[in-house]
Amino acid sequence: MTGLYKKYGGAKVQLISELKPQIRLRKKFLMYGIIGAFVTVIDVLVCMGSEVFSNAVIANTFGVVTGFIIQYFLTAKHVYNEKT
User: Fold this and answer.
1) Which residue in 3, 24, 25, 26 sits closest to 15, CA to CA?
2) 73 neighbors 84 (Cβ within 8 angstroms)
3) Between vectors from CA 68 to CA 64 and to CA 71, what angle results, nearest 5°?
4) Domain boundaries, the chain
5) How many CB atoms are located within 10 Å of the residue 70 CB?
6) Could you tell me the pTM of the whole model?
C-alpha cells in the first residue's frame, strides 16, 4: 500500500495515512451502519420465514421484535462497548 500517492502541487501525500485518522474518527458510526444493515437483512429473513406459518401482520411483528433484540445486543457490544 505504500505506492498509493496523490500529488498536491508536487508534494506527495500518502492516501492511506490520510484515511486512517478519518476511519478511526468514524469507526463507531460505520459499525452502527454495518450492524443496521445486518439487522435489516435478519428482519426481512425472519419475516419471510414466519409468513409460512402465520399471517403477514404476526410475521412482521415477529421479525421487527427479533431485529430490535439483535440490534440492541450488537450495538451495545460493538458500538457502545457495554456489557449487557
Assistant:
1) 3
2) yes
3) 130
4) 25-84
5) 16
6) 0.68
Q: SS3 for 80?
A: coil
Compute and round to an integer the Cα radius of gyration of the chain.
20
Provide the grid cell at 44.
426481512
How do the pLDDT tens digits run along the chain, 84 residues long?
Answer: 444 555 554 445 566 677 777 777 788 888 899 999 999 999 999 999 998 989 999 999 999 999 999 999 999 988 887 665
Name the amino acid, one letter, at 23. I
Dist. CA 30–CA 8, nearest whole Å = 28
Q: Which string of b and e fits 5-43 if b means at least 16 CB within 10 Å?
A: eeeeeeeeeeeeeeeeeeeeeeeeeeebeebeeebeeeb
Q: In 1-84, where do the E strands start and end?
A: 5-8, 11-14
